[in-house]
Amino acid sequence: MVVLGSAEAGVPNYDPIRGAILNTGASLIYDRLVEQDADQSFHPHLATSWESSPDGMSWTFKLRQGVKFTDGEPFNAQTIVWWIPKYKGTENEFMVDAIDHVEAVDQYTVRFVMKRPEPNLIFNLASAFMGIPSPKAFDAAGDGYGVTEAVGTGPYKLESFTVGQETVLVRNDDYAWGTDLSENQGPPHIERLTLREIPDQSTAFLELKTGGVDMLLDLPTDYLSQLKSEPDIDFRTQPGFGVTYMPINTQLEPFTDIRVREATALAIDQAAILKTVYNGVGTEAHQFLIASLPESKVDPKVEIRYDAARANKILDEAGWVRADDGIRVKDGKRLSVKLWTRAETEFKRIAEIVQAQLKAIGMDAAITVFDTSTIRDQYKKGEHQLVISTYGWNNADILDWCFSGKRLFYPNVAMWNDPKSEELNEIAMHQSHTGAEREANFRKYHEYLLSQFVFAPIYEPAQNMAFNKTRLQVPAVIRGPQLSQQTFVDLKVAE
C-alpha cells in the first residue's frame, strides 16, 4: 500500500497523451523511449540508441526488440509513427511540436524529421507525458481512455482506478525490458500495488506508523523529527523537484495593478514559512525554477524577497490607505481578496501564515479550502485571486506551462497574458537552436515574469519518502529525478 504525494493527488485519468497531470502510476503502466537519472543524464529504454543529424533537423532512434503491450500487441516502428501525431491538439502538444513527421526506416528504426532544431527533445521524450500507450487500446477507448483501461508496456498493469481515491496495479509477468537504472530488468518483485490518495498528511503519517500503508511518497519535512521514535520507519531524501508558490490572478482587481501584485509578493516571508511549516528543511524560493536548473540563475535584482517595509510603501503610493481596523481602503473599497488552497495539511498551514503576512501590510485575505480534484475545476471560473500551489518539474519549460497565454485558467492560474511575455515565450520555446541559446532565452523569459510579479515564490522542498522497513526493502539510492518506475521494480517485500 503506497500513498501518493500531494502534487499527484486528483489525477483524473491515466492518459499520457491528453492528460494534463499524471501520477506515479503512469510511470508503472507505461514505458518511454528514454529515461532520465537524478543527475539529468539520459538512458535507453524503449529506444536503445539515438542520433541527431549535425543540423538538428532529423533524429534517428533504434527501438528495442521483443517488447509487447500488455494487451499482446507488438511494439515497433509503426507504434511510434502512430503515437507522435496523437499529441496534435492536446495540452501536451508542445512536447512534440518541433517534429514535422515520423518515418519508419525499418521495423525497429524510426526517424523524426524536424520542423526546427529542438535542443530539448530528449528531455521531452523522457518526461511523464511521453509514456507510450497501446494503439489498439487507445483508439478503441476513444475519449474514455485512461479511466477503466490503460494499456502500456510497463512493469505493471491497471486493474482498477477510482478517481481521487486509489489505483490498483498488478504485475506484468512478461516484463523483460527494464532500464540500466534498475538492478532488476525483469518483472517487479511485488505482485500487486495499491496507490492511495490521503489528502490529510497527519492521517497518512498515522497510517504509516500503524501499518495501514507501507510507504509515503511525500513525507512532510515536519514529520522527519518524529521518525527517531519510530524504529520501524525509514526514509530516503532526494533533491527538490519543484516549487511551492502563490500565483496571482492578474486579470482581477486589485491585481491588475502591478503595484498591488508587487506589494503582495514582497509581503511573503519565505524564511518564516520555511521555519514554521518545514522545520527549516528545504530551501527558500525567490524565483520560479528549481535551483539546479541553469535558467534559475537570474539577476539578483529581480529575485522576489520578503520586504514588508517596501510592500507597505508601495501600497501607500498606490493610494491604499489603512482604516482603523488596519485593512487598507481605496475609493471606498477595502483591500479584501480571496486566498484559495488545497486541502492538504501543508497547504492549509501555508495559507494561514500567508493570510497573517498579508494582513500585516493591510490586506484582508479570506481562505477557501478545496480538495485537489475540485480546485482545478474551480479555476475554470476565473474567480480566484490568490492560490497556494505547487508544481513538480525539472525543466525550464514549466514557465511555458504555467504562464503561457494559451493556458489561461489552468495551468496558467495567474491568468497572465501579456504581449512581451508571449514574445519571450515564443523565442525560448521555438527559436532556440542550441542548448546555450535555450538557456539564455529562458533566463530572459524567467526574469521578465519575475519583474511583473505574477506570482510569489515560497519554498523549494526536498523530496522525502518514508517506508515501513519491516514490510519493504527500498534501494539505498533512488535513481531518477523522483521515485518512479526505476525504483519500484527494485522494491521487495521485507523478509
TrEMBL record:
<dbReference type="GO" id="GO:0043190">
    <property type="term" value="C:ATP-binding cassette (ABC) transporter complex"/>
</dbReference>
<dbReference type="InterPro" id="IPR039424">
    <property type="entry name" value="SBP_5"/>
</dbReference>
<dbReference type="InterPro" id="IPR000914">
    <property type="entry name" value="SBP_5_dom"/>
</dbReference>
<dbReference type="GO" id="GO:1904680">
    <property type="term" value="F:peptide transmembrane transporter activity"/>
</dbReference>
<protein>
    <submittedName>
        <fullName>4-phytase</fullName>
    </submittedName>
</protein>
<dbReference type="GO" id="GO:0015833">
    <property type="term" value="P:peptide transport"/>
</dbReference>
<keyword id="KW-0732">Signal</keyword>
<dbReference type="InterPro" id="IPR030678">
    <property type="entry name" value="Peptide/Ni-bd"/>
</dbReference>
<dbReference type="Pfam" id="PF00496">
    <property type="entry name" value="SBP_bac_5"/>
</dbReference>
<keyword id="KW-0813">Transport</keyword>
<comment type="similarity">
    <text>Belongs to the bacterial solute-binding protein 5 family.</text>
</comment>
<feature type="domain" description="Solute-binding protein family 5">
    <location>
        <begin position="42"/>
        <end position="397"/>
    </location>
</feature>
<dbReference type="GO" id="GO:0030288">
    <property type="term" value="C:outer membrane-bounded periplasmic space"/>
</dbReference>
